């Protein structure tokens, strides 16, 4: 290694940048007198021949230069000089464009990777601007982002996101994708994320790493971080092609930020290096190449410069969250244990005789028993075999002949394409009540034929899936309906109310088959659903959830008409860790699954394994506030998904957006924060294909996200108040958002949105 000294400036050099191509490798240096570009291969040859290397002058007297950046092809260079950005042409050595518009000194500039003519600049005026350097036109100007100046910028070509770092440790992320109009994605506080990072790792704390001193974490530099596929974002169920990581260089340490979940993957403090004399950096530069990372530090209080060589793969592996001994999965890998509370449902199912045996036994019992009540009275002979055949079945009917049947279902089961576009076109709008009343919950039946709505006026309404005709009314609660749930066969409808009761209705007769009151649930029921393919009813009450075994019978006794024949027995109950109140409960009913997920007021999500009858895992700090809903990707009988996709689930909290989790890794895979939810709890739902997540919002819109993107795909308008719940149709690409209550005192309405495929409505 031989030191190469480049001389040519007469003023102090304030900015240096390497080119993006290796051959030829170029360096650009800037001072108040000149902007010079050096071809390092030519400089080495001149030094070997005993002559002094000279740089190419790209510009003269630019002023105070804070930053220099090359375009992806090294044909242009952006020079941040004062309040302007000079775009210099390397070949002609002339100024290609002069970009003016900032109110303060420009501190950073970046070229767009997929659009080389687009330049993004950040300034001390706390905003960024997007320019077209071909014409010099301003394409976008942001609002004031932070309370301190912007110091660094980074554009990720994979996720097409812009990251802007400020002097107070704030990271603002924006989407640069086409059609997104530079929308804001999220904001990350580097100090808070560092505290959360160490809180998720048992046995360590930020104080052990030197965070006891209240120092700021200014974002000095941002750079791409290369991680292998099994470590980077998307190593769970999501594709790594749309996600990435970024190095965040600060005055106290280096951090690796996940651009999908916006959480830290690793943290490295300068105090961890015993031989490093620099503990507070004034400037920082990071570069990744061939699985390694190189960091150059300059001391804030001295003239020292130090270099670090890092292995990001080893760093992330050493700081990963410890995995469980047994990997969790929604799809069971073994049968039900005889000691499991779920064994009651399996044993009951195995004791049921086949249909043929039941029919034969019924016929034999009818043939042997007399038709009169008293055994001493002579029978009238009706039990004897008939002497004359009254009718005989027709055996000469052609197989192609179709006979009408009143009981034949008109609902056809068709496979819903997994690549269907999201529902964006309004198909129907419906007012569910004549008076102003809020719709508290909505739920489609598993066959996609019926839609149940729970109202605040104690009623439950069932519409057909097309929202046509008069709804079926289910009345009986004395409080607002808080939860609804369909059975897997769509024969029963379960409703929970704020009056503390739980009712199971017959969907056909609209009669209550089972009613459980406060004698069974001492605390209000917040969530109730059918579970394990209708074998159980899962109920959350206070800090515990209960597993109920039920027998439903709508027949009435002629003498004791007040007495219900249906029965319900508590099979199992289990409290949450710390006895925190359950705010959300979810379990799969479309297929057999042993896992139950519970969100609580302690801001945790606990996974219960009912095959073992115990808690299997606890995820701490899932949100900054208690999550009010947890939703699993259960798919439907009309779609097919890869098995690993069923391990995805989502949580949502007021003021903290929604987060996507993977059961196998027990970590956040992606964060959705584009929908405003500051005061009221808004619902969340998965599409049947598992590609979209829908969320309600307070701005009277429903938001659709792709699971592979952190920003929303589209907004669905039409409501006049907060959209508090959403539901996807399991049989067609349709979405139904429901409003909390109309602000203009009109009845609460349901909007049915529809998708299109190949130009045809579905």
UniProtKB/TrEMBL annotation:
Swiss-Prot/TrEMBL keywords: WD repeat
InterPro entries from the xrefs?
Answer: Quinoprotein_ADH-like_sf, WD40/YVTN_repeat-like_dom_sf, WD40_repeat_dom_sf, WD40_rpt, WDR27
Return the Basic residues bias intervals. Answer: 400-410
Residues of the region (Disordered) are 395-425
- What does the record list as coiled-coil region(s)? none
Sequence ranges of the WD repeats: 99-141, 474-515
Q: Which PANTHER family match?
A: WD REPEAT-CONTAINING PROTEIN 27
What is this protein called in UniProt? WD repeat-containing protein 27
Q: Which organism is it from?
A: Myotis brandtii
């Amino acid at each position: 290694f031989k030191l190469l000294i480049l001389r040519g400036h007469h003023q102090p050099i304030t900015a240096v940048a390497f080119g993006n191509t290796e051959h030829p490798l170029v360096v650009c240096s800037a001072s108040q007198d000149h902007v010079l570009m050096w071809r390092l291969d030519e400089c080495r040859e001149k030094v070997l021949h005993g002559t002094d290397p000279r740089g190419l002058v790209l510009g003269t007297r630019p002023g105070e230069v804070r930053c220099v950046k090359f375009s992806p092809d090294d044909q242009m260079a952006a020079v941040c000089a004062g309040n302007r950005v000079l775009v210099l042409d390397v070949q002609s050595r002339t100024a290609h464009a002069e970009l003016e518009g900032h109110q303060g000194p420009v501190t950073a500039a970046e070229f767009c990777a997929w659009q080389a003519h687009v330049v993004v600049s950040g300034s001390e005026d706390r905003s960024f601007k997007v320019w077209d350097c071909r014409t010099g036109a301003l394409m976008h100007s942001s609002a004031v982002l932070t309370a301190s100046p912007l110091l660094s910028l980074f554009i990720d070509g994979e996720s097409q996101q812009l990251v802007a770092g400020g002097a107070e440790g704030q990271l603002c992320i924006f989407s640069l994708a086409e059609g997104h109009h530079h929308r804001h994605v999220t904001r990350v506080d580097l100090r808070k994320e560092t505290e959360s990072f160490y809180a998720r790792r048992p046995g360590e704390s930020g104080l052990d790493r030197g965070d006891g001193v209240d120092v700021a974490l200014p974002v000095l530099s941002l750079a791409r971080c290369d991680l292998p596929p099994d470590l980077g974002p998307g190593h769970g169920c999501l594709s790594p092609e749309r996600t990435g990581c970024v190095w965040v260089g600060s005055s106290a340490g280096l951090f690796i930020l996940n651009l999908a979940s916006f959480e830290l993957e690793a943290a490295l403090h300068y105090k961890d290096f015993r031989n490093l004399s620099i503990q507070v950096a004034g400037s920082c530069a990071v570069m990744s190449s061939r699985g390694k990372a190189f960091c150059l530090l300059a001391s804030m209080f001295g003239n020292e410069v130090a270099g670090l060589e890092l292995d990001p793969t080893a760093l992330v592996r050493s700081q990963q969250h410890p995995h469980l001994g047994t990997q969790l999965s929604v799809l069971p890998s073994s049968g039900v244990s005889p000691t499991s509370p779920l064994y009651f449902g399996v044993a009951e199912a195995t004791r049921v005789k086949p249909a043929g045996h039941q029919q034969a036994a019924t016929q034999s019992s009818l043939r042997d028993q007399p038709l009169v009540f008293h055994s001493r009275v002579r029978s009238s002979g009706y039990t004897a075999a008939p002497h004359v055949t009254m009718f005989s079945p027709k055996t000469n009917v052609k197989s192609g002949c179709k006979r009408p049947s009143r009981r034949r279902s008109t609902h056809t089961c068709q496979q819903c394409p997994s690549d269907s576009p999201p529902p964006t076109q309004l198909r129907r709008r419906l007012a569910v009540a004549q008076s102003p009343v809020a719709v508290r919950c909505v739920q489609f039946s598993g066959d996609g034929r019926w839609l149940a709505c729970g109202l605040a006026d104690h009623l439950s309404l069932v519409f057909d899936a097309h929202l046509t005709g008069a709804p079926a009314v289910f009345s009986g609660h004395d409080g607002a309906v808080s939860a609804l749930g369909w059975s897997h066969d769509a024969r029963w409808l379960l409703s929970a109310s704020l009056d503390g009761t739980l009712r199971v209705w017959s969907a056909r007769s609209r009669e209550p088959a089972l009613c459980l009151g406060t004698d069974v649930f001492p605390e209000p029921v917040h969530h109730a659903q059918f579970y394990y393919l209708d074998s159980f009813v899962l109920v959350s009450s206070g800090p515990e959830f209960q597993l109920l075994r039920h027998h439903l019978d709508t027949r009435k006794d002629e003498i004791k008409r007040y007495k219900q024949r249906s029965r319900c027995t508590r099979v199992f109950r289990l409290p949450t860790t710390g006895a925190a109140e359950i705010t959300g409960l979810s379990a799969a009913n479309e297929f057999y699954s042993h896992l139950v997920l519970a969100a609580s007021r302690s801001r945790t999500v606990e996974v219960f394994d009912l095959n073992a009858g115990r808690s299997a895992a606890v995820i701490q700090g899932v949100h900054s506030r208690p999550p009010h809903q947890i939703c699993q990707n259960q798919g439907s009988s009309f779609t097919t998904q890869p098995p690993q996709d069923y391990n995805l689930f989502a949580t949502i909290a007021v003021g903290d957006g929604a987060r996507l989790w993977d059961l196998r890794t027990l970590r956040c895979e992606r964060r959705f924060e584009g929908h405003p939810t500051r005061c009221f709890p808004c619902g969340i739902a998965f599409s049947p294909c598992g590609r979209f997540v829908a969320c309600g919002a307070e701005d009277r819109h429903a938001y659709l996200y792709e699971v592979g993107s952190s920003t929303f795909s589209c907004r669905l308008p039409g409501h006049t108040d907060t959209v508090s719940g959403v539901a996807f149709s399991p049989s067609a690409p349709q979405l139904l958002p429901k409003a909390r209550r109309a602000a203009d005192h009109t009845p609460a309405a349901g909007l049915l949105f529809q998708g299109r495929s190949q130009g045809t409505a579905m």
